Amino acid sequence: MLKTVVSETAKRLVVILFVVTGAFLLVRAAPGDPAAFMAGEAGSGDPAFIAHLRAQMGLDRPLPVQLGYYLRDLAALDLGQSYREGRPVFDMIAERLPNTLALAGAAFLLALVMGTAAGFLAAIHRGRLIDRLISIGSVLFFSSPYYWVALMAILLFSGKLGWFPSHGTQTIGAGYTGMRALADYLHHLVLPATASALFSMAIYARLVRASMIETANALFVKAAHARGMAPVWIWLRHVLRTSLLPITTMAGVQAGQLVAGTILTETVFAWPGIGRLMYEALGARDYNVVIGVFLVTSMIVILSNLVVDLLYRFVDPRTRAA
Amino acid sequence: MMTDPILDVRDLCVDLRGGSRIVEDISLSVTPGQTVCLVGESGSGKSMIANAIMDLLPGSLLAVSRGQIRFHGADLRLCGHRALRELRGRRISMIFQDPMSALNPVRRIRTQFDEVFSAHGVEPEGGREARMLELLELAHLPTPRRILDAFPFELSGGQRQRVMISMAMALNPDLLIADEPTTALDVTTQAQILQLIAELQRAFGTGVLFITHDFGVVAEIADRVVVLRHGKIVEQGPLDEILRAPRAAYTRTLIDAVPAWNPRAGGLSTPALVSARALGKVFKGGATALDEVSMDLLAGETLGIVGESGSGKSTLAKCLIGLEEPDHGGIVMDGTDITALPAAQKRLRRHRMQMVFQDPTAALNPRHMIGRTLADVLKVNGCARPDLRARALALLDDVRLDRRLIDRFPHELSGGQRQRVCIARALAANPEVLIADEALSALDVSVQKQMLALFQDLKEARDLAILFITHDLRVAAEICDHVVVMRHGGVVARGTPEAVLAAGRHPYVEELLAAIPGQDWFPAGGAAAARGAGRCAI
Description:
The structure holds 2 protein chains of 2 kinds. Chain A contains 14 helices and no strands. By secondary structure, chain A is mostly helical. The model of chain A has no long low-confidence stretch (mean pLDDT 83). Chain B is an alpha/beta fold. In chain B, the strands form 4 sheets. Chain B has a 6-stranded mixed sheet, sandwiched between helices. Chain A binds chain B through residues 218-220, 222-230, 233, 237-238, 241-242, 245, 315-318, 321, and chain B through 54, 56, 85-90, 93-94, 96, 98, 101-108, 115-116, 119-120, 151, 153-154, 164, 167.
């Protein structure tokens, strides 16, 4: 087991190295650079000034040299400085990461629990009204553009009904502390988390339904009936349990995507996480911030896949032998 | 003295929902300690009757439309679902054909076994654990504690079926329904399982309704026989009566389908077409699949490779045809060792060998019509596009299939028809060697007999050499020119059927022979031993 963890982790470290290098080169391939952007903001297009800024930022050195320095600093967990704000990128990300994790984590749990429950209900009521309603609902969420769903949710639940706040993480100026602050935070979390969960929820519901219907035809399910087990136990202990195998795989992929996808949610709901940080940094060509966020996001994606791979060994004993 | 029957089925009919009658007017009964065999070919409705008794028919498709299913006098059809569930597993148990898929693949045996008790709220004396261990021991499982901790995939087919039987007997049921429980198993494992069921039946006084297509098995275990065809009872009566003087012609056909025991003199001295030279193969994990195996397949002969599962027969076939590479050793065709040839050349030679697999359903693409399946191979072998259909039709003629089947999908065909398509597909490549890997094992005994005749005809018409892999010694003895007996990856005995299977036999061959079911009726040892003149060559 330990050997597996070590070798799997090592494989992923190599992947991360590739990701960083790729991001580093790609960002620099885009037209413009932080020096030009800052010079523009300062109202000066003077080439000498821009060249001066570049030299200051170390951007005048050849690419491989810049990459070498970046990787050297990275090994010491130094993600460099933000060109625009002059602060360590590490601190900027650390400040905002908890918000992103809260959002993605809530969306992930919501999608997983609600999606599985919906799929389970649809499967055991196959062909009946409840199955049809769930199927229609999942097709709807599955095919609606995300930003449209998010905007409609804001219009309806925030604008019209006034149930949930539409942006930010806290009620400005309320000055809540302790449990009140937490409740306020969760209240703000409801809309963005639900909006970003809907798509995955629809996928889980469809997957769980299909997988359960297939499993329900298996001989071991019939054998369980022949043993006189109550149907509800058979659905839960045999059908659902076995059907969760494909869900586990999907959950790993989705968990990563949810984090990566926060850039959109955080922008729509003005949620101060790393997604929005990335969005702002991109416009300013703030290289180090962009690469830093990119790196952290990829690490989360890779980590969640690693967790799923390891988890799978527990969920499906057959993979342990292989 | 007449004992009251445990199970008494009267005039049972099963209908397709809103459609035709599948099972008609079935009446049969089982008394305590009695074994009633329900015999028929696939599609005769045997399993449907079992499922109807257990109330396990797929409700959206099939329904019992008429008749009574009396269990200790009470009609199960009038019981509520809850009452039926109470009976199932506790007083009526069932075991299935495929022990692999009848156990949940991701749960330990202990968990699944425990459900038998928890489903019925039973607390055996001395605790569940002790009772489970006791039952597994009764089923002759060597290390019951390890078995309880295992997952199904960690057990062999025979072990899984023993576990299923232990679970079925856990609550001392009055009736055991066994739906082809040994069809997926080796001859030797089959013999052990049949013996186990008989043993437990004696110990518990259980009535057994045993479903099978093999009259050999029937002769081995039945007290009473019910012969079924197209959902109707053809005849029923005590074993002796049915075997000695069957009234229906159909029963006679089924009895005759049990392979006779007359090992051929065999022997040919044509040149070798394909030879294996000291082939060795060790799988990852250290299991030896092939241990210095050498053999010659002569031109125009049928060579039987006989052995239990895990003996290495299939690995040998796969190495010959190139689906596996041997670790060492050579495969000689036309005087050259083809393992040393470049890939393209190797492929060209191996083209001359074609394989037919055990499971014809899995071997055919379910989304391709039969015509397309055959045309694909014909195309690869250089048949011109306009001729494809005519050639495909000719192939169907060769394997004695109706030409109309060319525009059908595999699921529209019976198992035997599908296997004929697989043979036609192999012939499409115009091979010199046909490798049949347990090609008859998934088929009914009666269909097997027809297929054997087909192999024989094809061999003569096309001058084929056939490598016939089987675990059934009777079949090998009947059609092969030479036989190679394998065990644990090595060759145990080789020679003509007469020599290998007659006097002075190898102890392992002896063991295989003893396992053949129904020997009192279809003698296995006697005839051969009487002939006596055997040379045993190792």
